[in-house]
Design brief:
It is a single chain. The protein has 83 residues and is mainly β. Helices cover 0% and strands 39% of the residues. The chain has a 7-stranded antiparallel β-sheet, with no helix packed on it.
Length: 83
């Protein structure tokens, strides 16, 4: 499990809230040292921001969303537009 250092504590991290920033990826919901970074890479059909994660120097496969500050693999079968 991976967690975001930013974003709403309840609900999805929406595209309108991101403003193109790179955010830290943590291994725990408790604030601490980041394991890596997440960069925006588009959004899903509901407007949730999609992310590409790099953890411990390796890019993880797929795209991820943040819900309740937890990164989860994207499940949408029809991804939305890419910026």
């Amino acid at each position: 499990m991976y967690f975001s250092e930013l974003g709403p504590r309840s609900g999805p991290f929406l595209r309108r809230d991101v403003k193109g920033r790179v955010i830290g990826v943590m291994g725990s919901p408790v604030p601490g040292a980041a394991l890596g970074t997440a960069r925006p890479c588009g959004w899903d059909v509901e407007g949730a921001q999609l992310w590409k994660l790099t953890v411990n120097g390796a890019e993880l496969p797929g795209r991820w969303i943040v819900i309740n500050r937890e990164f989860r693999p994207e499940q949408s079968s029809s991804p939305g537009p890419h910026p």
